[in-house]
Amino acid sequence: MAARYNPLYFQLFPVKPGKGEIRKAAFIEAAIRLIAKKGGESLSFESLARMLKVRRSHLTYYFESVDELLLMAVKLVTATVQQLIVLRMHKAKTPQERLKALIDANGDWFENYPEQTPVMLYFNFKCHQAPVFRDLNDSILKAGHARLTAIFTEWPHDKSTKVKMDAQVIQNLIAAEMMIYGTSGKTPSGQKFREEVWPRVLNTSQRLGYQA
Predict the structure, then answer these.
(1) Cα–Cα distance, 73 to 29 (Å, whole number)
(2) How many CA atoms lie less than 13 Å away from 158 in the CB half-sphere?
(3) Is 59 exposed, middle or buried, given 0-12, 13-18 or 19+ CB atoms closer than 10 A?
(4) Tens digit of pLDDT at every position of the chain (212 positions)
C-alpha cells in the first residue's frame, strides 16, 4: 500500500508527519473507504487487513483498538471540513457572508468527500455507546458554536438578542439539515444543500433579529 502525503496530516499528529505517521494516516483513510463501502459495523482490524492485503499486526502496531482508529478517522474528516470552511471564509467580508461561507463549505464537503458522510453517521451512533466518542463530539460542537457565536457577535442585531443562544439555534438547524442530507439514501448533492439550506438559515437568522 503506497502511503501518500496530505497536508491535513499536520492536524492529526503532534509532530511533523514522518513516514510512520503518513502510513498511519493511510490506514485511517482506508478505514474511511471501508466504512463508506460496507458500513461502520464492518470495521475491524481483520476486515481492514484483508482489504489492504496486509497483516493484522501492521494495523495493531499503530492502533490499540478499532475505536482509536475510528476516532482518528473522525478527526481527519473534521479537519477536512475545517479546511473547506477556512477556504470559503477567507473570501467573506461580512458576518452574513461568513455564515453563508459556512453553509457553502458544508456543501463542498458533501460534494467532494461523499465517502466521509457514512463515517460521521456511524460516529453519531457510537456517541451513544462510549464516553470517548461523546467527548470528541462535544469538542467538535463547542468549536462550531464558538465560530457561530463570533459571526453573530459581529452581525448588527437587536439589543435584546442573545447571541450565544441564537448561535445554538442556527447550529442545531445546520446539524439537522446535514443529518437529513446524509441519511437521504442518495449521494448528497452539495449544490442542492447550498441552494436549499442557506435560505432557511438566513431566514431564521433574520427572524432572530439579525439584519440583512
Answers:
(1) 7
(2) 10
(3) buried
(4) 444 546 566 566 655 657 778 888 899 999 999 999 999 999 999 999 999 999 999 999 999 999 999 999 999 999 999 999 999 999 999 999 999 999 999 999 999 999 999 999 999 999 999 999 999 999 999 999 999 999 999 998 776 669 999 999 999 999 999 999 988 876 778 889 999 999 999 999 999 988 76
